[in-house]
Write a structure and sequence with these properties.
The termini are far apart. This protein is 34% helix and 19% strand. It contains 15 helices and 16 strands. An eight-stranded mixed sheet has the order 1-5-6-11-10-9-7-8, with helices on both faces. Strands 13-12-14-15-16 form a five-stranded mixed sheet, with helices on both faces. The chain has two domains: 243 residues, BirA Bifunctional Protein, domain 2; 97 residues, Rossmann fold (3-Layer(aba) Sandwich). A hairpin with a 7-residue loop joins β15 and β16. With 454 residues, the chain is an alpha+beta fold.
Length: 454
């Protein structure tokens, strides 16, 4: 008997016993994986920074990636690009709290300092490393997840600390071998001085309203100082002719700025005064600075900072001065890569070759001894039941970048020995080494990078 399909019914598809292939997932656009060997170059930079910070008595601070949205609105300013356009914000479904992935770290550092009363016994020098997040169009040198390293000195009012931080960054460039970076410097004075300049600036810009773009018109009465940072070619003449903030600075602000410059001059650090340098956050006062390059196109700032004497009070703490900077890790590494001065990834010191799985107990005991003495050892891992042929193991040993192969052959082990073979200098040279002397022999060989193993 046959059945007929009505117009409202379709034949059911035949179900396959084979599970559907899962769709491959990829990283969010503008948020990049960091893979070996590039990750080793990041570690190299981070180690350089840690050493430099330790020598300057700056201590590491780590804050959460997620902070209350109000922290950034209050700290960075409601009419900044970051707050208006670039923050990843969301509502906590458990309690309705408004939260944000941090777009920068200074506000979080200040929040932590206030929350834990860290200035109760005097100023603090701190540094941090970590990812930041901004919802913007990914391009060269600008990502949605990017990484910053920063230094902050809180509780210090003097110009000497401004200079210390600038010199700290300049020293880092020297130690990294970073080239073609220049320092730009300005002073934003104090709030009352900026208010007088603001009045004059608005009057000047209003007189040229026909030249202003829509972004400038929107900012004219909310944040006119940021208009000076415009990249619009049609507005450059108007901006160049605008009143200069430095002409409105009082005696104390000028003295502070001159003291910073005097220390930089005495230290041999070149700089250029840039009266249009205002930085992107509203919390700055007095000294502001940027280290810039022409080698990254429009994303030319690799490090920026300044003094923010009012931010601590704005986030609920007792009034206290502070100054700091942050550098863009991706941008610094891109410059070093472009120069060809990034260090090459280093392979392990030793690759352990295991012809037969029966040797594994001795292999593990031996390589653990080497590792305990600070040597880097990669052990060959077999496929399936076997350990793989000697030829394939040597191929992997060579590909690992190891300087030496340590061969745990059955005949050698029966004599209480292993074979140490050079994979780099004097390729092929080898010697039998008693198991009890392996650590000493390998250490001696590693200490003579140009020597050939006899």
């Amino acid at each position: 008997m046959t059945s007929e399909l009505t117009p409202n019914h379709a034949a059911e598809p035949v179900k396959s016993s084979k599970p559907a292939k899962a769709q491959a997932l990829t990283a969010v656009k503008g948020m990049n994986d960091l893979l070996p060997p590039a990750s080793a170059q990041w570690e190299w930079l981070e180690d350089k920074v840690r050493g430099l910070m330790a020598r300057h008595a700056y201590r590491n601070l780590r804050t959460p990636i997620v902070e209350p949205t109000a922290l950034f609105v209050r700290g960075l300013g409601e009419v900044t690009d970051i707050v208006e356009k670039e923050m990843y914000s969301f509502e906590d479904r458990l309690n309705g709290e408004q939260l944000t992935l941090r777009p920068e770290a200074t506000a979080g550092v200040v929040r932590a300092v206030v929350e834990h009363n860290m200035l109760y016994d005097g100023g603090k020098r701190l540094y941090y490393m970590g990812p930041m997040f901004r919802h913007e169009r990914p391009q060269r040198g600008r990502y949605r997840q990017f990484h910053q390293i920063g230094a902050e000195a809180l509780g210090f009012p003097g110009a000497e600390v401004d200079a210390e931080l600038i010199l700290l960054a300049a020293t880092l460039w020297q130690e990294l071998g970073l080239q073609d970076v220049r320092l730009e410097l300005n002073s934003l004075g104090q709030p009352n001085e900026r208010a007088a300049h603001r009045t004059a600036l608005i009057a000047h810009l209003e007189a040229h309203a026909d030249v202003l773009d829509e972004e400038a018109k929107r900012r004219l009465h909310s944040n006119p100082l940021r208009i000076l940072d415009t990249k619009n070619p049609a507005m450059q003449a108007v901006v160049e002719a605008a009143p200069k903030l430095i002409d409105f600075l009082g005696e104390a602000s000028l003295a502070h700025f001159n003291a910073v410059k005097a220390i930089l001059d005495a230290s041999g650090v070149a700089y250029r005064i840039n009266p249009r340098l205002v930085r992107g956050m509203d919390y700055y006062n007095l000294t502001v600075f940027e280290f810039v390059t022409d080698r990254l196109g429009s994303q030319g700032t690799i490090c920026g900072g300044g003094r923010y004497d009012y931010l601590i009070e704005q986030v609920g703490g007792k009034p206290a001065p502070a100054v700091g900077w942050a550098l863009g890790v991706e941008r610094v590494l891109e410059l070093l890569k472009e120069q060809g001065t990034l260090p090459e990834a280093v392979g392990p010191d030793v690759y352990a070759i295991v012809p037969d799985a029966s040797a594994l107990p001795v292999v593990f005991k031996t390589i653990q001894t080497l590792r305990a003495q600070g040597m880097s050892v990669q052990m060959h891992a077999g496929a399936g039941e076997g350990m793989g042929s000697m030829k394939s193991q040597f191929k992997k040993a060579d590909g690992s970048g190891a300087r030496f192969a340590l061969i745990f052959g059955g005949d050698e082990l029966a004599r209480g020995e292993v074979t140490l073979k050079s994979l780099r200098d004097g390729v092929g040279a080898q010697q039998a080494v008693p198991l009890v002397d392996v650590a000493v022999c390998v250490a001696q060989s590693l200490a003579q990078p140009q020597s050939v193993v006899a």
